[in-house]
Design goal:
about 475 residues, about 35% helix, 3 domains, Beta-lactamase, about 20% strand, alpha+beta, 14 helices, globular, Nuclear Transport Factor 2, Chain: A, 4-stranded antiparallel sheet, single chain
């Protein structure tokens, strides 16, 4: 055995270092665990916005946004500092109504995976997927499937060919064996390389939970997640073999959705007890993989079945279900926002257009913000000013015919041709009818001009859209794209 001797100065250094580490560890926990006056196991306590540092008038702008832009919304709940400061129901929504929350289910499934790991039912996120389903491993199984691990499922990067809005989703849903269908999907990218949203692989997590815990997913959830939070409203649909659907199918009341968000706001703790492991909450809600970039609302990242995106300049994460179901958590503002919406398929689907709503709610909180850099419009020639004015007026009037005239017939950008762009605009216009484009850069080179621009709306300003082009065709400026080759 080795015996270490310390001089007096080294002993003092060791003691000071050890004390400092203990101090930092204790204070790190103190910063993460906010002392609450109560937990809403038996129901939410209410407060008015001003008592919790919010401006009611600004909060009503969020309410106006829903009424003007989001006709499918059923509810908006705002929890600040642990108190329900705003609760309103629209259309035929109500406090008693269960919401079909679609893919918010995925975030609940993620929480159950974290709990199962903590309790030893699962070993790690590096476990191989196929080890849970050896009966679905034929001799000619694609070797890349052998490399899929739980973390690839959680980050939607397993590599299967899939389109959640395409016919393959319907074929999977109507098949007799959802597991077999998924394992027979072709692999198109290496596991971990690329985000591709896939509800079929989320369902595998529920089956893994059932196999590992020796109980069905709903019973497991009730015992270790729902009951501690006082959630009574949950129902959960099942697949043809009786497994609860891992990627969708849950129903909650809006208030119970807020409880789940509040649990994550408190790092997985509830009334002094750890419900979801704190480290799992942190890992799940970190940026694990880039999901996509939206031209109006910026970049969306993905964690472990949680979406990650800033809200009003603050770090934030969200559970996001199709057709406008949301739990948005903004830890540094001590804020939870819940939205439920009409579960029947609207035309067009509107869920991406809820994004400005969360910024509007957060903007009602009184806090110091860094000074905003004023938008500086480019100095434009008269004919370019006229082009932008005509295009903005056509957007406002929802006049697709005029908008089409202002897009080059050879327009092609990121695989989108002119007709695809017009289809996208037709979907978008009802939710951005007051938006206008402002050029912040205009650099002409002959008939081609390089431009940057932002989209200004009554309720939001888009991130700067860079490296775009205009083309002067027959004396008229048009959107260039990158041009279909002749």
């Amino acid at each position: 055995m080795k015996i270490f001797y310390f001089s007096g100065s080294k002993k003092l250094f060791f003691l000071l270092t050890f004390s400092l580490l203990i101090f930092l560890a204790e204070n790190a926990v103190c910063e993460q665990l906010k002392i609450r006056e109560y937990y809403p196991s038996d129901g939410w306590k209410t407060s008015n916005p001003e008592q919790q540092g919010m401006d009611s008038a600004k909060l009503m702008i969020a309410d106006e946004f829903i009424q003007n832009r989001l006709p499918d919304a059923f509810s908006l709940l705002v929890v600040k500092n642990g108190y329900l400061v705003f609760e309103k129901y629209y259309s035929w929504g109500s406090a008693e109504k269960y919401a079909v929350v679609h893919s918010v289910t995925k975030s609940v499934t993620s929480a159950l995976v974290g709990i199962a790991l903590e309790k030893g039912y699962l070993d790690s996120v590096d476990q191989k997927l196929i080890d849970f389903f050896p009966e679905y491993a034929p001799d000619d199984l694609d070797p890349r499937i052998q490399k899929i691990r739980l973390k690839h499922i959680l980050t939607m990067s397993a590599g299967f060919r899939w389109n959640d809005r395409g016919p393959i989703m319907r074929d999977w849903y109507t098949s007799a064996d959802w597991i077999k269908f998924t394992f027979e999907l072709p692999i198109v990218t290496n596991p971990g390389d690329k985000f591709n949203y896939n509800s079929s692989i989320s369902h595998l997590l529920s089956i893994i939970l059932s196999k590992s815990t020796k109980t069905d997913t709903l019973d497991f959830a009730k015992q270790i997640l729902f009951e501690p939070l006082g959630i009574q409203s949950a129902f959960w649909r099942q697949d043809p073999k009786g497994y609860h659907i891992g990627g969708f199918g849950l129903g909650f009341s809006a208030r119970d959705l807020a409880k789940f968000g509040f649990l994550y706001l408190n790092n997985g703790y509830w009334d002094g007890q750890s419900v979801v492991p704190e480290h799992w909450v942190k890992e799940s809600t970190e940026q694990q993989i880039k999901a996509f970039h939206h031209p109006l609302y910026g970049t969306f990242w993905y964690g472990y079945h949680w979406w990650v995106k800033q809200v009003d300049g603050c770090s934030s994460f969200r559970a996001w279900g199709r057709r406008g179901q949301y739990i948005v958590v903004v830890p540094e503002l001590d804020l939870v926002i819940v939205v439920t919406s009409n579960p029947s398929l609207p035309h067009p689907p509107t869920s991406i257009h809820y994004s400005p709503l969360f910024d509007l709610v957060a903007a009602s909180i009184d806090r110091k913000r860094p000074p905003r850099t004023p938008l500086k419009a480019a100095n434009l020639p008269a004919d370019v000013k006229a082009f932008i004015a005509d295009y903005n007026q056509a957007r406002f009037n929802k006049n697709l015919e005029t908008m089409a005239d202002l897009i080059s017939d050879r327009f092609l950008y990121n695989g989108l041709n002119k007709q695809t762009v017009l289809g996208y605009l037709e979907v978008q216009l009802p939710y951005t009818s007051e938006a206008k484009i402002v050029l912040t850069k205009f650099k002409p080179e002959g008939d081609i001009a390089n431009i940057d621009y932002v989209v200004m709306d009554k309720y939001f300003e888009s991130p700067s859209i860079t490296d775009q082009r205009l083309i002067n065709e027959n004396g008229q400026w048009k959107w260039y794209g990158n041009q279909v080759p002749k």
